[in-house]
Design a protein that fits this description.
single chain, 327 residues, alpha/beta, Rossmann fold, Arc Repressor Mutant, subunit A, 2 domains, 7-stranded mixed sheet, 13 helices, 46% helix, transcription
């Protein structure tokens, strides 16, 4: 999926403020995106969307309201809401529960939810991580699993982009998360140039098949419901008829609306999700290719190998040799 490049458009990044939040992450992310705007303005003829950063906090009556806006005046339409880390331990359940309806509301409107370190507890409490993989700090994996056993937590993956949810592990992982969001919404060139300006380690070279970015801001609620359903694990055995049933639409209508909203046929969309997940399993697990093929929804390993190579340009074995960590 291409990054947004319409002149005059904007990408709104919300940052959640809550008791004991790491203020360095809140302001660091704000500064990182401010620098990205400046860098984008210096990139000559390349026309990129402006990044609008907003801070959100519960008010006295429990509403999630903006308390800072880098470009005030326009109606809020979050593309992503980031939950920063905390300098203390795992947030108390009561605090998480107060935020759950708001996170679910923004997620249901098409916003990507992103977390750093123990910010993942907010996502887990909202239910969006049920039966899904998530990255968090190694010190909190067991606590996360005890409270939310449906989450497939993994501290060995520093940053995990799962389409409508992005999670990262370390307390200072907000720098990598910020660059990843730049890459997703505005392209790899801006992410690289921003990293260079800030003297940060740039993101590893991306492979197209591993960086599928689903379009979530199209406004078709029926299609968005199916997208969330697929990201939640249904993609392994999804069929066009089951997707249409999830959307509550007749198959022909569903096919037309899904392609209009996402730019892809449902079968191609599912294929992209499966390949992306296979890339992650090849990088961060020791499972063999046949096991991975089955886990992402292919009964025929040979068919999986063909699809994978067509999407990424590598065989699964070559991909693992090139991109899996060496230690």
């Amino acid at each position: 999926m291409k990054a947004k490049t319409d002149m005059g458009s904007e990408v709104e990044v919300g940052v959640l403020i809550y008791p004991d939040v790491q203020i360095a992450a809140v302001h660091g992310l704000t500064d990182l995106f401010a620098v990205a705007n400046r860098v984008a303005g210096e990139m000559g003829n390349i026309q990129l969307s402006r990044i609008r950063v907003t801070h959100w906090q519960l008010d006295s009556v429990g509403r999630l309201a903006p308390v800072y806006d880098s470009h005030p005046g326009a109606v809020h339409a979050l593309n992503v809401l980031v939950i920063p880390p905390s300098l203390r331990g795992a947030p108390p359940s009561e605090l998480l529960e107060r935020h759950c309806p708001h996170l679910c509301d923004w997620h249901g409107r098409g916003a990507v939810l992103a977390s750093v370190c123990i910010g993942v507890f907010f996502l887990a409490a909202s239910g969006v991580l049920d039966r899904r993989p998530a990255s968090t700090h190694q010190n909190y994996v067991h606590a996360l699993l005890e409270r939310y056993p449906e989450v497939r937590a993994d501290a060995n993956v520093p940053l995990l982009d799962d389409g409508d949810v992005v999670t990262s592990a370390g307390l200072m992982a907000w720098t990598g998360l910020g660059l990843r969001l730049l890459e997703r919404f505005l392209g790899a060139t801006l992410a690289f140039e921003t990293a260079r300006y800030l003297s940060l380690e740039p993101l590893p070279s991306a492979v197209a098949g591993a960086l599928f970015v689903p379009r979530l801001d199209h406004g078709d609620e029926a299609v968005l419901k199916v997208q969330h359903w697929l990201q939640g694990g249904a993609v392994q055995h999804a069929s066009v008829s089951s997707m249409a049933a999830c959307a509550g639409l007749e198959e022909r209508t569903f096919l037309r609306r899904f392609r209009a909203a996402t730019g892809l046929r449902p079968t191609h969309y599912c294929q992209q999700i499966r390949v992306g997940r296979a890339c992650r399993l090849l990088e961060f697990t020791r499972r063999n290719v046949d096991q991975i093929a089955w886990e992402v929804g292919y009964q025929d390993p040979g068919a999986f190998r063909k699809v994978f190579q067509a999407a990424t340009g590598f065989t699964p074995s070559d991909y693992r040799r090139r991109f899996a960590p060496t230690v």
